[in-house]
Amino acid sequence: LKDEDSQVRRAAVGAVGKLNCVIAFPVLKKLLVGPGKDDSPGVRVEAVIALSAACGSIRAKEVKEVLNEVVKACTAEDDEEVFLEASEAIEFLEAFEEKRLELEPKSTADNTDPSTNDVTRRSRNNGGNLFYKVSDRSQDPAEEQNNFIEATLKKLKDEDSQVRRAAVGAVGKLNCVIAFPVLKKLLVGPGKDDSPGVRVEAVIALSAAC
Prior knowledge:
Distance between the termini: 17 Å
Helix content: 55-70%
Low-confidence stretches: 100-138
Strand content: under 5%
Number of domains: 2
GO molecular function: oxidoreductase activity
Organism: Zooxanthella nutricula
Protein name: Condensin complex subunit 1 C-terminal domain-containing protein
Region (Disordered): 103-143
Pfam family, one: HEAT_2
């Protein structure tokens, strides 16, 4: 969320929106108002969408606080796209609070569900275990997976960013125990990849794997 590239931050916001509201709310609200407000309108739009989606299943009494923060964001917003998105979120949250009912997934799909966002949709499509058809393989599954991991890790160091990006997508299809330590190194610290595209892919892959 502190990456210098706005597309990486936007992908990270989409991933945070998949968490429960208790975790997501304090993180996302900082991107909308106050000293931590993100300077990218695209990131702020994503934060509003993710906040609405993450808080769509909490108890009505807790929606009030979320609603207040979105109202603050809306009134302090100078970007038209973010303002309109926040306005829609306010209507959504007000209706939710009034009814005191949990939203069905179907009802959030139009405006508030992050599945409408390309980053989140791609993340969901990347899910699944690459080694599920073990009965169809002649090689020992564990050995085959180890060989695949070894080959993929080598490609993560390729000089071509497109090759590295493809390798990141492949790592995201592994389970979280394997994928997490590999992918997090591409996002922060001395091993941080210098390509924003690779870092975006790493965020998406992490979200899918974990």
